[in-house]
């Protein structure tokens, strides 16, 4: 093929893609524009899907609600865009557990997140199993959980609460989402590298590495929406968002290399020998492992763990505060639950109360509040799987080898048929057994926020511990008010982050 015809083959679909995406953005103030996908000759459902992209979450929810929880779709013939989208618990049980071997993450998922190549999130089969077993050894050891808990407590006491007290005393409004992302970046880096980068501080230092992680998730999302040949062509040409991603990868790689270097220096200064098997962070368990001798693999693995912690909890916490700020009755119940613990404690400097992670373990209503947030606002709002051999879903839908399966967690949390008439209300009580303060057992095929089956999230209890400690401290010490006039909506990303942040004001509560 000549250069001109190659350019045409690449640029015509790219132009069409960008045009449809742009027209979708122009319609972003018109939710009524959502329509059931139309199948076009030659283009399949791609135009309809792109035209509704601005409203992706709501659109997927409407389509799934209107089609009985399941939907078969496709893009242009030959573009490898045939897909099945579902939020049906029976199908989820089949995909994630019963016939799990037929639904790996697949090569396309691994290519989309090439920055984590070889990391747990992107691999399948025997290799995945071996690496999962290794990480279980790390994450379940008491030295790790104790250390994470202690750092979480200290971070809240020494950094978060003083910063929030300053915001309250000066009456400054600020972006709670940005603050939570900074907090979780520091806490996750401490768990992964044993180094706290100090992003959560009053002078708000630049957070290039954190912004780069957001870019990975935003461009990852767009890669899911277009034929693989198109984004690969853009990567090859180094144009548009692929160029932005390329820069983001460089920033993240630099962050990992610098942070490993910083950790070595810190340990040398406190007298540790690098060859000595001192465990204190995730890196210690990987750096001398011959399986991870390859620098690229080690770097990808560490980035994977940063994403596992920062992205998920940092995305969930702002939604918790958003919901609590609108539900003072729920805040009162949480404070009542905390009250017996607080009555035995002495406040720290500036009269702030900090709860030990251990003390919040038994708080059932607080856990129900976290689950209720994750039901409506799951940070990983969409899962992707690939079909190995032709199969029939419990719902009767056929899927074929090579198809992509998308599981919409966002839609699943909002389905009346699954959660009842009040499915859109924020109500932690739905997680409690009637007339008791015990948690209901809700199966993971229906509440998928922490995944289900053999690949269930390995950090669930650590995440709950960290979120409880943070939410308890913020809600006990402050009233959180939303600043009026802001528009809260999810951004287009693999993460359910808020597009415009969450602008709040705080008032210090009297002891
Ligand atoms: C609100 C907090 C969290 C949520 C909602 C969450 C959710 C999830 C989800 C949905 C998956 C499946 C991802 C996929 O298949 O693509 C997953 C996997 C995983 N999570 Fe979490 N996660 C959270 C926190 C954490 C934390 C704090 C850690 C680490 C300490 C962690 C470690 C992992 C690991 C290692 C996997 C990979 C499991 C595998 O593929 O075998 N997660 N998590």
Automatic annotation (TrEMBL):
Coiled coil: none annotated. It comes from the Eukaryota. InterPro entries: Cyt_P450, Cyt_P450_CS, Cyt_P450_E_grp-IV, Cyt_P450_sf. One of its GO terms (molecular function) is oxidoreductase activity, acting on paired donors, with incorporation or reduction of molecular oxygen. Heme binds at residue 457. The keyword Metal-binding applies. Keywords: Heme, Iron, Metal-binding, Monooxygenase, Oxidoreductase. Its cofactor is heme. CDD domains: CYP86A. GO terms for biological process: lipid metabolic process. It holds the Pfam family p450. Belongs to the cytochrome P450 family. This is Cytochrome P450.
């Amino acid at each position: 093929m000549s250069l001109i015809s190659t350019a045409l083959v690449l640029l015509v679909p790219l132009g069409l893609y960008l045009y449809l995406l742009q027209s979708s953005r122009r319609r972003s103030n018109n939710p009524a524009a959502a329509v059931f996908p139309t199948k076009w000759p030659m283009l399949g459902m791609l135009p309809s899907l792109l035209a509704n992209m601005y409203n992706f979450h709501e659109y997927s929810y409407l389509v799934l609600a209107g089609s009985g929880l399941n939907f078969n779709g496709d893009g242009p013939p030959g573009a490898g865009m045939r897909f099945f989208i579902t939020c049906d618990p029976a199908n989820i049980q089949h995909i994630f557990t019963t016939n799990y071997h037929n639904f790996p993450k697949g090569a396309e998922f691994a290519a989309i997140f090439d920055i984590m190549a070889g990391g747990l999130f992107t691999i399948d089969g025997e290799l995945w199993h071996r690496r999962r077993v290794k990480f279980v050894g790390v994450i379940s050891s008491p030295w790790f959980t104790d250390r994470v808990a202690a750092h979480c407590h200290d971070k809240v006491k020494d950094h978060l609460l003083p910063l929030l007290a300053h915001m309250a005393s000066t009456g400054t409004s600020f972006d709670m989402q940005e603050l939570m992302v900074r907090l979780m970046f520091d806490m996750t880096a401490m768990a992964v590298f044993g180094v706290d980068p100090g992003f959560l501080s009053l002078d708000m230092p630049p957070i290039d590495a954190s912004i780069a992680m957001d870019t990975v998730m935003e461009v990852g999302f767009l890669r899911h929406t277009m034929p693989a040949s198109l984004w690969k062509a853009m990567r090859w040409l180094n144009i548009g968002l692929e160029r932005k991603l390329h820069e983001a990868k460089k920033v993240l790689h630099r962050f990992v290399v610098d942070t490993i270097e910083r950790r070595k220096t810190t340990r040398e200064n406190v007298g540790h020998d690098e060859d000595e098997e001192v465990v204190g962070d995730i890196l210690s368990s990987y750096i001398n492992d011959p399986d991870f001798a390859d620098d690229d693999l080690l770097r990808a693995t560490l980035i994977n763990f940063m994403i596992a912690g920062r992205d998920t909890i940092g995305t969930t916490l702002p939604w918790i505060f958003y919901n609590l700020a609108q539900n003072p009755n729920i805040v009162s119940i949480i404070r009542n639950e905390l009250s017996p613990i607080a009555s035995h404690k002495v406040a720290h400097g500036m009269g702030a109360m900090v709860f030990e992670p251990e003390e919040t373990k038994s708080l059932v209503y607080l856990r129900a509040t976290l689950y209720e947030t994750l039901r409506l606002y799951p940070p990983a709002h969409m899962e992707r799987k690939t079909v190995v051999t032709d199969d029939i879903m419990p719902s009767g839908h056929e899927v074929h080898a090579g198809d992509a399966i998308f599981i919409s967690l966002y839609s699943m949390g909002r389905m009346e048929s699954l959660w009842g008439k009040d499915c859109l209300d924020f109500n932690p009580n739905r997680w409690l057994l009637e007339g008791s303060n015990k948690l209901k057992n809700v199966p993971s095929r229906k509440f998928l926020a922490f995944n289900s089956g053999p690949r269930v999230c390995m950090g669930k209890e650590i995440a709950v511990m960290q979120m409880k400690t943070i939410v308890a401290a913020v809600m006990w010490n402050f009233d959180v008010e939303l600043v009026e006039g802001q528009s809260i909506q999810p951004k287009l990303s693999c993460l359910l982050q808020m597009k415009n942040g969450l602008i709040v004001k705080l008032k210090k509560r009297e002891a």
